[in-house]
Structures are given as C-alpha cells and as structure tokens.
Amino acid sequence: MLTFREDDETIKKIDELARQKMRSRSEIVRMAVRDYVNRKLELIEIQKLAAKRYAEGKLSIDELVEIIGFNEAKKVAHYKDIAESSFAQGMS
Q1: CA distance 38 to 61
Q2: What is the count of structural domains for the chain?
Q3: Distance CA 33, CA 60 (A)
C-alpha cells in the first residue's frame, strides 16, 4: 500500500487519462510508477556500463559525456585518475 499527495491539476490529468484508457486512477498511477522505476534502473545500468567502458579505455571522455552527462563523466574520470594513481604508487 502506498499513499501520496498530488496537486489538483495532476490528479485531474490522471483522472482524464484513466477515463480515456478505461482504467482506474490506481492502475494509471501503478503503471506510471512501474515505468518510471524501470526506466531509471535501466539508465543506471547504462551509466555503469559506460563508466566501466571508459575505465577500460573503450570509450573516450567525450563519448562518456554524451552518455552520462558532463558532471557524472567528470566524477568517473576523477575516480579513474585516483585508481590509476594509487595503482602506480603501489607498483613502485
């Protein structure tokens, strides 16, 4: 069970969609939440894969930026630099 509050305008839109699709308000909200969660989880997996490919040298920083955005790419590049530096120091 999940309860949430939403503004009147959004509720009207949900009700209109429910009416058009001949579904209940709850069904429309459940479908929307499922779709949102699934898309976000898929995006996280894509971002992880892109970061891994960058760390392996299979993606350029520009390609990484295109996939995950500048700020996230900057973080990944920073962590890669730290890991490489730590590894190099451990080898010496």
Answers
A1: 27
A2: 1
A3: 34
Which residues, 6+ apart, have CB-to-CB distance to 55 below 8 Å? 76, 80, 83
CA distances from residue 28 to 8, 9, 12, 15, 72 in whole angstroms, order as listed: 16, 15, 12, 9, 33
Q: Residue 1 falls within a domain, yes or no?
A: no
Tens digit of each residue's pLDDT (9 = 90 or more) over 10-64: 999 999 999 999 999 999 999 999 999 999 999 999 999 999 999 999 999 999 9
Give the domain extent around 59: 8-91
Domain annotation covers residue 65: yes
- pLDDT tens-digit series, residues 16-28: 999 999 999 999 9
20 with 34: CB under 8 angstroms? no
